[in-house]
What does this fold into?
Amino acid sequence: MLRRPRRWPTRRSTWPGPVGCGPAWRGRWSCAPPPRSPGSRPHRPARGARAIWADASAVGDAARTALALSRLPGATADDRFAALLATERLAARGVAIDPDETSADRPADDRPTTGVGRVGVLVRTLGRFEVRVAGATVPPSAWQSRRARDLLRILVVRRGRPVPRGELCELLWPDDDPSRTGHRLSVLLSIVRGVLDPDRVFASDHFLVTDAASVALDVTHLRVDVMEFLGAVTHGRRLLARGARAEARTILAAAVRDYRADVFSDEPYADWASALREQARAAYVAALRMLADAHRSAGNGGAAVDCLLRLLEQDPYDEPAHRMLVRTLVTGGQHGEARRAFARYRAAMRAIGVRPPDEIILAPRAGVRSPATAVPRPG
It folds into this structure.
């Protein structure tokens, strides 16, 4: 969200328009001061421009506008999905858009800035914990305390739900006297506010909403990668249900690509992270399964095999994945690889006391032609 200037531009002003939209915007749109709710009026001109470019078959301009809109503060999940689909369509045509062209890390006028009013905050939880403010990673020295990092991680795990102060104190100082930890929590809250808003652009409750009883992270004012990942998997499932298989493959492939590691892999034994970690891992497995099936339906056996092998890395005893892998290899004409996959399938089922599969699944099905796409060798 931007701070309100003294005078907001009118229709005849020289306001350059949303980040990355180019000279076609100049002098054509008015803008009101941005409301506090995300996805509100400052985004309407950008969405209107995206529709205009699309109607005019200006694919490149529409994609750039969609990407710029997805980087604005308060952009919705639909805005980000639209940008992803637009850039993927251009990539399929051999046209590349530089993500830095409309990056949220760079102001439209290229003037230096260190505040987060224009560029926002990104919290990375998939893999090692990391916070990026104004496009730069927050250095360890800015946290002043490991517990300040833990406090933000706990609040991220709760995804906007208020956490009682007593519970936070118990999680952060399990062996200390509760009467002595209340002040310490207030100090940590001040540190976290300073990390997320180093230039003090916003009110104190912009990122952290506190009262005498609880603390919550306002997730509408920052991005959290695991929340975007879970939203993408859900969106991909809905697209499949509507029969939009090509769009679903794009969304699910991006989600799978973004899952770099389990949530807070640098804190594998933190009990407060286990629920979100398991939810994200289950979503990752589901995304791989849906993506493998979508690739098979499109005749892309190689991509399907890759998804299935990654799925079996997560769960070596997943019987449907084993069966789909063997059948995909057989359909692709990779009969030697299919037999080796079948042997692993049989060994895994025997290890857990499940009836091993019959070799009939190794027989090619009549009338099913092998796809032209080469199937990679399983590792």
Observations:
- DSSP finds 13 helices and seven strands in the chain.
- Residues 1-40, 99-119, 370-375 have pLDDT under 50 and may be disordered.
- Strands lie at 121-124, 130-133, 136-137, 163-164, 208-210, 214-217, 223-224.
- The first strand starts at residue 121 and ends at 124.
